[in-house]
Automatic annotation (TrEMBL):
<protein>
    <submittedName>
        <fullName>Iron complex outermembrane recepter protein</fullName>
    </submittedName>
</protein>
<keyword id="KW-0732">Signal</keyword>
<feature type="signal peptide">
    <location>
        <begin position="1"/>
        <end position="22"/>
    </location>
</feature>
<dbReference type="InterPro" id="IPR036249">
    <property type="entry name" value="Thioredoxin-like_sf"/>
</dbReference>
């Protein structure tokens, strides 16, 4: 009887690092952008690009989180703050406040943020919020500004 409980506890302990990763803000450099843009093996990856000074970003990210929760096996959501990783505390606080601290989160870590903007999406001028959908078939869809219900439907 104790052995199954011990094995369950061991499995949970080994799984904890993977849960912790979602709650950890990590730096995004130019070298890491290609991996982020690589089409997923299946489904879709949504990059929710935002900034601390963005009025609509929080509501956009919350709408994207609801979409991901409705399709957890098809959609992966990653938040990307265009603010410097040096503002870690403020970024993490905003993500917690918005209820988004359980998603993978990145923040810019580059001397030239405009270069990261271009590498993420050459058609993007840097305005936030920006939503970038990457499908398994390699197609991309970029949407700037506050998402409408019609645009949310296009994302899945």
């Amino acid at each position: 009887m104790r052995r199954p409980a011990l094995l369950a506890l061991l499995a949970l302990t080994l799984a904890l690092p993977s849960f912790a990763q979602a709650d950890t803000l990590t730096a995004l450099t130019a070298a890491e952008v290609p991996a982020l843009l690589k089409p997923p093996a299946h489904g879709e990856r949504i990059l929710a690009i935002w900034a601390l000074d963005c009025a609509y970003c929080e509501s956009n990210m919350q709408a994207l989180a609801k979409l991901q929760q409705a399709h957890p096996h098809e959609i992966t959501l990653v938040t990307i703050a265009t603010d410097d990783i040096a503002q870690r505390q403020a970024i993490e606080q905003r993500l917690r406040h918005a209820g988004l601290n359980n998603y993978p989160a990145r923040a810019y870590a580059a001397a030239t943020p405009d270069r990261l903007n271009f590498l993420i999406d050459p058609n993007w001028g840097g305005e936030t919020p920006r939503t970038l959908l990457i499908r398994a078939d390699g197609t991309h869809l970029g949407i700037s500004g506050e998402l409408t219900p019609q645009q949310l439907q296009k994302l899945h």
